[in-house]
Amino acid sequence: MIAPQCSADEWWDTRSLDALYTEVLAKYNVDPSRVYLTGLSMGGYGAWNWGMKAADKFAAVAPICGGADYPDLVCNLKNKPVWVFHNANDPTVGVENSRNLVAALKKCGSTSVTYTENATGGHDAWTKAYNNPDLYTWMLKFKK
């Protein structure tokens, strides 16, 4: 597992993430067919954005309470398993971000998108998502 952090006052830089991905695959014993992408909040944006720009790198993508800076690229994920999590009463990142991206994926023809929306929980959709053993079982079903 790798959990990169953004520098203070910066946003995700997919070129830096691509470089990290390449370095990790070269240095460590990683099965490149079983790399999964997830992130929460700002990392949820990172998961959507990087997943859309580099879908071929990942076996599955699980964005949590995020959104996308490039929603017009969402169809790049139409053949990728995607499980999205968000809380309906999120005051930080509006739930419509996930709803719209899931709807757009389905419009592109995706049949492998799952959406879990909890009625409550505020911005913290990640505790339920990451405490759900089904998420990990779901991930491990997929290889790229």
Automatic annotation (TrEMBL):
Recorded coiled-coil stretches: none
UniProt xrefs under InterPro entries: AB_hydrolase_fold, Esterase-like, Plant_Biomass_Hydrol_Est
Domain of life: Bacteria
Keywords for this protein: Hydrolase, Signal
A Pfam family per the record: Esterase
GO molecular function: hydrolase activity
Key word Transport present: no
Protein name per UniProt: Alpha/beta hydrolase-fold protein
